[in-house]
């Protein structure tokens, strides 16, 4: 019997190569092998972390690894997490590491990438330059439209609605209130107040929308982290085993709802151009118009025979809608989470003194909610910053890819000569819990954001921070990310959240009735998980 020498030799060779690549190299020789493994299997397989991702339990698992193992950990053979400023977020995010495909696999509205998911540096920064100005702090603070939107949404919608409920003596479920308020704010600035959402006025419609929107999040794992498997299952006609059909339907409903607002805004703009007048300032679609016009200018300068404007508007319709969808959803989702946890903390009996301090600070404004005046209030700022620290709405998992020969990690945990195309992430959850920077990190203590000199004015006995400590805290604060892909809406978020807080605690005191649902989901977005369908039940007491 002749042995099949050649095939056998090939098999042995293949086996040895695999053994070398997936075991010997991965465990002992790869530069990544110098990084401590989060789980015993992390250098061999991605199973452990992928399973955590699928269950939306990644953030705490990675945090636990950083606490045990230091500022750089290996969470899968080709996947690491860093937890430091130097050699961490400064190197990766301010250093412009690219986003990879995780974002556009999951965020791809109308089949067109918005800025958020664009992997390519050039395309992304061009879009970002178009949009930065409408969201700049000075633009927003001086915007007559934003000022009127704030006044109307607070005085005509939010406060009257809360007053009505408080008169009945019923507790308020605040997560839904904040989803509605945050959505109405962002959408009003993007599309103009009249053409935007009116969820504060239509709470039942709002609640349904938010339930559908949220339920989808559990399924983004498949297209985002298992794209090839998900595509394969779709080809077999088994896609619905991973992502139920109603998720696609919900996505289409959201896209249809959003593009209807774009089309209304477009009509409003064309009407204004025809009539030669702008109408009410608060009804002008500020962000929509800005992007629409920037893209129009680009098309017209590109081709020498410029197409007629209406044709060019049509050809950009979906690109603009994709971007606007992302801003409205990113804007309401994150801000509402932060506001709900803020309400929870502020309404705990042991934090009641912070309510009194806040109310004392708001009283001299006599009900004015002017953006610049609100931004100058240190207690309001401290309460919000402390909430964004302890309860970051996006607490983890912002993946990037390494360039060749990267050096990451800190101090004696520094690793040099890393290969390219390694998935690297940092997480606000862990950065915000560094006890050297934020002493007693699990405590919600707004005083840490106040300068020590201001402490004398506070009757409380909490400690403030020195200017050097405050600078260090700012370096580690990462609720909005950092670098070129940092949140474009951070100023709008700070402004609308401050206005909403002032609107509520300027008129009411709050007492927590049931906060059992206020536990963070551990996925990309850290919304409260809820308890029997309730999140943050609070009783209001009119001042
Ligand atoms: C409390 C409120 C908010 C928080 C905590 C927050 C947080 C973040 C974070 C952490 C990122 C980086 C995400 C990543 O790279 O994975 C981001 C990006 C982004 N955010 Fe926000 N955000 C908030 C509000 C808003 C608002 C109001 C808007 C509306 C305009 C917005 C629009 C965006 C967009 C468009 C990006 C992508 C930016 C880019 O890729 O250049 N966000 N946000
Ligand atoms: C959109 O807003 C304009 C005012 O800017 C208003 O005249 C128009 O009726 C609104 N469209 C819809 C469909 O609500
Ligand atoms: C608020 O009202 C008081 C008394 O009427 C006045 O002295 C103060 O200047 C007002 N403050 C503002 C910000 O308007
Ligand atoms: C890799 O980076 C290290 C440290 O930054 C540097 O000294 C070295 O020259 C680099 N090697 C290559 C091949 O670029």
Automatic annotation (TrEMBL):
The molecular function terms in GO held by this entry are: heme binding; iron ion binding; monooxygenase activity; oxidoreductase activity, acting on paired donors, with incorporation or reduction of molecular oxygen
Q: SUPFAM superfamilies recorded for this chain?
A: Cytochrome P450
Q: Name the cofactor(s) required for activity, per the record.
A: heme
Q: Name one Pfam family in it.
A: p450
- For whether the record's keyword set contains Kinase, the answer is no
Record keywords: Heme, Iron, Metal-binding, Monooxygenase, Oxidoreductase
Family, per entry: Belongs to the cytochrome P450 family.
Q: What is this protein called?
A: Cytochrome P450
Q: Which organism is it from?
A: Extremus antarcticus
């Amino acid at each position: 019997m002749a042995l099949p020498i050649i095939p056998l030799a090939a098999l042995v060779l293949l086996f040895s190569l695999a053994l070398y690549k997936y075991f010997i190299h991965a465990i002992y020789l790869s530069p990544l092998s110098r990084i401590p493994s989060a789980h015993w299997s992390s250098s061999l397989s991605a199973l452990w972390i992928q399973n955590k991702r699928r269950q939306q339990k990644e953030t705490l698992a990675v945090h636990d690894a950083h606490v045990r193992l230091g500022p750089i950990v290996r969470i899968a053979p080709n996947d690491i997490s860093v937890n430091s400023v130097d050699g961490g977020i400064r190197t990766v995010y301010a250093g412009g590491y690219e986003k990879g495909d995780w974002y556009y696999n999951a965020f791809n509205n109308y089949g067109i990438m918005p800025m958020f998911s664009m992997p390519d540096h050039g395309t992304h920064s061009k879009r970002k330059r178009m949009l930065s100005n409408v969201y700049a702090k000075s633009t927003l603070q001086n915007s007559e439209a934003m000022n009127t939107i704030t006044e109307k949404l607070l005085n005509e919608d939010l406060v009257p609605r809360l007053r009505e409920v408080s008169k009945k003596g019923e507790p308020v479920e605040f997560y839904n209130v904040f989803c509605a308020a945050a959505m109405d704010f962002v959408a009003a600035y993007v599309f103009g107040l009249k053409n935007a959402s009116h969820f504060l006025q239509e709470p039942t419609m709002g609640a349904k929308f938010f339930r559908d929107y949220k339920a989808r999040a559990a399924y983004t794992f498949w297209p985002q982290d298992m794209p090839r498997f998900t595509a394969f299952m779709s080809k077999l006609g088994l896609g619905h085993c991973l992502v139920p059909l109603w998720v696609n339907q919900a996505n289409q409903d959201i896209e249809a709802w959003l593009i209807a607002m774009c089309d209304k805004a477009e009509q409003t703009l064309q009407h204004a151009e025809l009539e030669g007048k702008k109408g009410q300032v608060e009804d002008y679609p500020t962000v929509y118009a800005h992007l629409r016009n920037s893209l129009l200018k680009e098309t017209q300068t590109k081709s020498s025979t410029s197409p007629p404007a209406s044709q060019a508007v049509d050809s950009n319709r979906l690109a603009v809608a994709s971007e606007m969808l992302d801003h409205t959803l990113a804007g309401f989702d994150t801000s509402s989470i932060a506001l709900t946890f803020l309400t929870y903390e502020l309404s705990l009996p042991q934090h009641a003194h912070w309510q009194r301090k806040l109310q004392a600070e708001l009283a001299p404004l006599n009900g004015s909610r002017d953006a610049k005046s609100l931004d100058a209030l240190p207690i309001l700022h401290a309460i919000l910053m402390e909430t964004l620290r302890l309860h970051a709405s996006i607490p983890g998992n912002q993946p990037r890819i390494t360039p060749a020969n990267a050096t990451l990690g800190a101090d004696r945990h520094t690793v040099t000569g890393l290969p390219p195309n390694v998935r690297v992430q940092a997480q606000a959850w862990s950065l915000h819990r560094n006890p050297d920077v934020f002493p007693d990190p699990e405590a919600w203590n707004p005083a840490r954001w106040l300068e020590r000199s201001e402490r004398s004015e506070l009757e409380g006995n909490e400690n403030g921070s020195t200017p050097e400590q405050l600078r260090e805290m700012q370096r580690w604060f990462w609720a909005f990310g950092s670098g070129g892909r940092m949140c474009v809406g951070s100023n709008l978020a700070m402004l609308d959240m401050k206005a909403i807080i002032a609107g509520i605690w300027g008129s009411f005191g709050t007492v927590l009735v049931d906060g059992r649902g206020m536990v963070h989901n551990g996925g990309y977005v850290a919304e409260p998980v809820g308890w029997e369908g309730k999140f943050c039940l609070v009783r209001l007491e009119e001042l």
